């Protein structure tokens, strides 16, 4: 994967706003993770990081794109890859599905698979 220094990051709350405006959410978690717990939003693409370099062209270049994973690390790598391949409107969602669940945003599946983890700063209600 590529350098992530050019990637802007947004929090899950801002991600919700972008999705309402038509942004695409790209989840790069692996299939087993998504089978346990998935984002429940319109315009969702699931492209596991292990398949990302072969499938990134499925992501539209003409829309805002929010990259997401479990905690934000893998999606940041994928977002950097997209920026280095000509995508201009790409951001990374900080804190991933862990914070998404903590904020009470819509998911499908077992939230216990992420709620048992230490969310770091995101375990506090003052986080975005």
Write the layout of secondary structure elements.
Elements: E1 8-10, H1 12-20, E2 24-27, H2 31-36, E3 37-39, E4 44-46, H3 52-55, E5 65-68, H4 73-83, E6 90-93, H5 96-102, E7 107-109, H6 112-115
Parallel strand pairs: 1-6, 2-4, 2-5, 5-6
Antiparallel strand pairs: 3-7
Describe the structure.
This protein has helices at 12-20, 31-36, 52-55, 73-83, 96-102, 112-115, and strands at residues 8-10, 24-27, 37-39, 44-46, 65-68, 90-93, 107-109. Residues 117-126 have low confidence and may be disordered. It is globular. The chain is an alpha/beta fold and 128 residues long. The chain has one domain: Rhodanese-like domain (Oxidized Rhodanese, domain 1, 3-Layer(aba) Sandwich), CATH 3.40.250. Strand 5, helix 4 and strand 6 (90-93) form a beta-alpha-beta unit. The strands form two sheets. Strands 1-6-5-2-4 form a five-stranded parallel β-sheet. The protein has a two-stranded antiparallel sheet with strand order 3-7. It comes from Flavobacterium saliperosum S13.
User: Which strand order spans the largest sheet, edge to edge or round the barrel?
Assistant: 1-6-5-2-4
CATH architecture classification name: 3-Layer(aba) Sandwich
Number of strands: 7
Q: How far is it from the N-terminal to the C-terminal residue, by CA?
A: 28 Å
Quote the CATH topology. Oxidized Rhodanese, domain 1
The tally of helices reads 6
Order of helices and strands: EHEHEEHEHEHEH
């Amino acid at each position: 994967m590529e350098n992530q220094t050019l990637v802007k990051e947004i929090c899950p709350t801002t991600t919700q706003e972008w999705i309402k405006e038509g942004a695409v959410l790209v989840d790069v978690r692996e299939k087993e993770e998504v089978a346990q717990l998935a984002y429940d939003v319109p315009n969702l693409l699931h492209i596991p990081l292990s398949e990302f370099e072969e499938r990134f062209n499925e992501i539209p270049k003409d829309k805002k794109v929010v990259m997401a994973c479990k905690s934000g690390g893998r999606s940041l790598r994928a977002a950097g890859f997209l920026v280095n391949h000509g995508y201009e409107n790409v951001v990374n969602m900080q804190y991933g599905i862990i914070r998404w669940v903590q904020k009470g945003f819509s998911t499908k599946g077992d939230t216990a698979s992420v709620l048992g983890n230490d969310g770091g700063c995101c375990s506090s209600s003052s986080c975005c």
